[in-house]
Structure of histidine kinase:
Amino acid sequence: MIINIYVYRTIKEDYLRDKEMNLLTQANMIATRTTEAIYESNHQFDQFALKEMMQSFDAQIQGRILIADENRIIVYDSFHEFNNKKLEHPNIIRSIKGETVVREYHSEQYGRTMYTSVPITRQSHVVGVVFLSVSLEHVYDRIANVSNRLIVMSFLGLGMITVISILFANLITKPIKRLTETMQKTAQGKFGGRIPIKGNDEISQLGVAYNLMSTKLSQIDKQRRDFVANVSHELKTPLTSMKLLSESLLMQEGGDIAIYREFLSDIDTEIDRLNKIIESLLMLVDLNEDKLTIEYEITYVNYLVEKVTQSIKPLAEQKKIKIIINQWHKIQIYLDQGKIHQALTNIIYNAVKYTEDGGKVVITLYREGNRAIIKIADNGIGISEEELPYIFERFYRVDSARSRKTGGSGLGLSISEQIIHLHQGTIEVESKEHKGTTVYVKLPIDLKTGL
Ligand SMILES: Nc1ncnc2c1ncn2[C@@H]1O[C@H](COP(=O)(O)OP(=O)(O)OP(=O)(O)O)[C@@H](O)[C@H]1O
Ligand SMILES: [Mg+2]
């Protein structure tokens, strides 16, 4: 709008200045011509000659032409009104004194008018005045016309800008709205929401990243549900046994003390089992903590392996299983003794547990490049090819009937794997059903401390 006002003013000034210059040029031309119609003798105008002369100018100027002599007597009036009358117009009076006067007037009768008066000079003497009066109404009409068009165009422009802005804003905000809605759903716990991706702009990239995150979130959510379901199931099994045993005991009428002892001993075993599961679970939770600290100590792996084997010996002896340790190298590395002890116990314990009586477990310790290898090979029941990929999953047991008989919750290998990964090591398993299983634990040797 401010620009409109400015443009309107500029146009108006331009038009009026143009008109003014035009009129002045014409008035001067007329003034020069009229000198030809002056008698040499008395400096009077030859009115007849003047009339002839003015005909062409009358046609040119869409207004009124007045010519006054030096006494302000009108010698020519294109409207034939003031001929031979004395005119006391202030402009004429000023022009007789030699001034050029341009003025704009506004009257009820004629509307806006421009008056221009120039002196007629002859040999440096003012001998008369040319007075032009031209209506400015059509000039103002044109200005108004331009101004109206400007206003209409401004409104049209404004309307267009508004429409385009709304469309554009919609285009940008729509995907953001969709993203926000999906995110809000996710925040409410409804995982798995996806955003349709169109194009490759920043918002689409955000959508792709969000979809990835959403997929990951639903996976984590599923794992969490599975985990809770598994934990509940695992905890419920010993509890159910305990409940059964205690109910049976309660129903005994004056029973034999030996039966009480037997049932209580079974309950005790179930309590131990429950305790072990809870301990394992707590350990897994600990291992999953990002801020978990590992207490590295320089350790002879040979010594650690011997210590673990020692603790498993009673079970092995019970099953008449021979444990052989081959130590090819002496290896000293930085590790968290407690944790690696736990990891190796789980693995060697499995080897003894899943090997039939009279079997054999061979532990070999050697160095390969920058790694210490602890190889635990048994000639036990083995694991089938189909089951092998899952044995590190929490609560996974190859054959639940078999495992129930042997006890265990299916957490041992998950814990071992976590601990070994924390030490930047790897664990690999090779197995053949009915032939045996070999587990390789590979731990990096810190070159500075490796022997
Ligand atoms: N040396 C092995 N020989 C045969 N099967 C094995 C051996 N080690 C592990 N497995 C199989 O892999 C499964 C998972 O082992 P993992 O140690 O995680 O659980 P678990 O021994 O059943 O229970 P936990 O160790 O928690 O008491 C076992 O149930 C068993 O079927
Ligand atoms: Mg185990």
Q: What stands out?
A: The chain is about 55% helix and 20% strand.
